[in-house]
Amino acid sequence: MIDFPILSSLILLPILGALFIFFSKSKSNSEATSKYLALFVSFGNFILSLYLWYLFDPTTSDFQFLEERTWIKGFINYKVGIDGISILFIILTTFIAPLCVVAVNNSVKNSLKHFLIAILVMESLMIGVFCSLDLVVFYLFFEGGLIPMFLIIGIWGGERRVYSAFKFFLYTLLGSVLMLVAIISIYWMTGTTDVMYLYSIGIEAKYQNLLWLAFFSSFAVKTPMWPVHTWLPDAHVEAPTAGSVLLAAILLKMAGYGFIRFSVGLFPIASEYFVPLIYFLSLVAIIYTSFVALMQEDMKKLIAYSSVAHMGFVTLGIFTFTQQGIEGSIFQMISHGLVSAALFFSVGVIYERMHTRLINSYGGLVSIMPKYAIVLMVFTLGAVGLPGTSGFIGEFLILMGAFKKSFLVATIASFGVILAAAYMLWLYKRVIFGKIINQEIKKLSDLNKSEILILSLLAFVIILFGFYPEPLLNTTNVSVKDFIEMYYNNINFTKN
Description:
Blueprint: H1 6-23, H2 30-55, E1 64-72, E2 76-82, H3 87-107, H4 112-131, H5 135-144, H6 146-156, H7 161-190, H8 195-201, H9 205-222, H10 231-238, H11 241-266, H12 268-273, H13 275-294, H14 299-318, H15 323-354, H16 365-368, H17 370-384, H18 390-405, H19 407-432, H20 449-467, H21 470-495
Helix pairs in contact: 1-2, 1-4, 2-3, 2-4, 3-4, 3-11, 3-15, 4-5, 4-6, 4-11, 5-7, 6-7, 7-9, 7-10, 9-11, 10-14, 11-14, 11-15, 13-14, 13-19, 14-15, 14-18, 14-19, 15-17, 15-18, 15-20, 15-21, 17-19, 17-20, 18-19, 18-20
């Protein structure tokens, strides 16, 4: 293990980059300078995260690269560390951030400098969420991410941006207030907010249900689970392309990670008790929002509803409490992060050319933009969960875990895969094939160099992990195995 504070460096580097951009006073070509700086910082952070993965020891479930400093004496310690469950989310965050910087070429017309600052601050806060081993520190990072995303939607969004930004902010904040009350209650009962210590001592069974519901209120909104999902389509439709990508690829994953680390980890008795509720809400999300997706005329809304359905698979897998289910959920979150990012980038490409997201405005793109048609096919098949794409591995493992617990639940969830094929292939057919009805389409140009770079890179990774999932599964395997063992030991201990 190295002495260098690599996790703090990963958290701080984007913020330092943001401060540097903020205070830079170069007048001539300042936007280009800001962009290159942001790209340099975010790409550097990605390289550092790969080095972290290289140093990581997957044979142990212990938290690694631990850093602990007293922040508020006798109350809060700044404590960070990673295991096999959290490291992949950090790499996903650092991978997506530079792509968002590259993608701002066309989508952001005003105050580019401040937009890049918001992206970098967002990256820091999201990395902090996945590293935190103190409940208060986790809460600060978790809620802090609301602010830059609120600004991204509210300043650089579409016509209804203010409404969407406030809806997003209020929904997520309301749930999180209850989580804050729960964290204060845990401190009052145990005298600590240290996650590792709380794992070892456990929380009394009589308090677990209420505390679990408080954490659930926050994570359910952020996931988002049905019926508190309505903010997501609005936020996606109004957000600029880079904002939609960050929201879909990373922000939603913070809640899934929270379910594993805190809901299941800290409250095993309550997690067991509320399994029927989670299964019900997950199945409704998978089936109902898939039908809603089928009815959409706006491409972004369709992809947003598909995200709700895919995250339904994630929550289902987590609460199977099986090796396949939880590993599948982690894999599905990483895969969905890549696929949804790719789909929103793809929508952004044609939106910048046509300034409309309506599906019926397109058709016949295959003859005008063949390169675009090929990469979009890869992403569509990834969203469907076709074998050979990363989407298949996650859903397959989740359904395997679900079958172990309930044949009925797994069977109903399986229909979600068919419905995903229906709405995604329907979208692809209407946009790419058919006759060119809109004559404006004939004037379109195919992908430029930066678009080819972003989309081909995402397509490559989606196919790579579809055929070769081993690096991801090897990283999570031991941590998940020991996590499940700890879960069942805590249940038995608390019951006795």
